[in-house]
Design a protein that fits this description.
The chain has 231 residues and is of the alpha/beta class. It has a single domain, classed as TIM Barrel, CATH 3.20.20. 44% of the residues lie in helices and 17% in strands. The protein has 11 helices and 8 strands. An 8-stranded parallel β-barrel has the order 1-2-3-4-5-6-7-8, surrounded by 7 helices. Helix 4 links the parallel strand 3 and strand 4. Helix 4 runs parallel beside helix 5. The longest helix has 14 residues. It is globular, with a radius of gyration of 17 Å. The mean pLDDT is 94. Cytidine-5'-monophosphate (C5P) binds next to strand 8.
Length: 231
């Protein structure tokens, strides 16, 4: 059964804790990303954990291997379950992240590699020098590479998860942002799909932010996404 992770993209610890309480028991897993972590630091991770929630720390590490290794160690001490690195950081960086995580034994955070951000399309890839390649082709190449260097899973568009789950070993985690319940606004996401489609195609975790956080009733919105996931 795939899990729902709510992206806690708010600016303050107060807002974060209020949203988690508003959403309630329906959701047990939250993603803390750059916006909130930069504002509030590790304490906000501890505060959300203290509410009994599991954490995906999405700081998209991308640095030299030694720095990433140490950052993963720091994140492991916070008790986070999922961590994200950029696959474009290279083989040694991903391996260093994997090794640092493994030091935590049974509590080792899982290392997820992001391939191509779901906000990028073909024209955006051309801008950064990936020319004449569709995002899906680039995603497959980077996914195979990252999984081969020690990543436990991938963060990918729900449009690509079908091809990737068919290609990679069983047990690989597939975390998909860019999920939009039927009828909701896409915002800056360009390669979106519905919760039902993402689950059908092999996503193990769905990350949903604005459609839940921005809803008039975030609890009901979360239940709606969970229902769509079950369909
Ligand atoms: O609000 P929305 O549902 O678009 O939020 C998606 C979340 O997933 C954001 O926190 C965004 O930073 C993150 N994310 C993404 N695409 C990736 C990796 C992470 O949208 N490839």
């Amino acid at each position: 059964m795939a899990e729902l992770i709510v992206a806690l993209d708010v600016q303050t610890r107060e807002d974060a804790l209020a949203k988690v309480k508003e959403i309630g028991e329906a959701v047990g897993f939250y993603k803390i990303g750059l916006e909130l972590f930069t504002a509030e630091g590790p304490d906000v991770v501890k505060a959300v954990r203290d509410l009994g929630k599991r954490i995906f720390l999405d700081l998209k590490f991308h640095d030299i291997p030694r720095t990433v290794e140490r950052a993963v160690r720091s994140a492991g001490k916070l008790g986070v379950e999922l961590l994200m690195v950029h696959s474009s950081g290279g083989r040694a960086m991903i391996a260093a992240a994997h090794e640092a995580a493994a030091e935590f034994g049974a509590a080792a955070p899982k290392i997820l590699a992001v391939t191509v951000l779901t906000s990028l399309d073909r024209a955006d890839l051309e801008d950064v020098g990936v020319c004449g390649r569709d995002p899906s082709v680039q995603v497959e190449a980077m996914a195979k590479f990252a999984a081969g260097c020690g990543a436990d899973g991938l963060v990918c568009s729900p449009r690509e998860v079908g091809a990737l789950s068919a290609m990679l070993a069983k047990g690989t985690l597939f975390v998909t942002p860019g999920v939009r319940p039927a009828g909701s606004a896409t915002g800056d996401q360009k390669r979106v799909a519905t919760p039902a489609d993402a689950v059908r195609d092999g996503a193990t975790h769905l990350v949903v932010g604005r459609p839940i956080l921005g809803a008039a009733d975030p609890h009901l919105a979360a239940l709606g996404v969970l229902k769509e996931m079950q369909n």
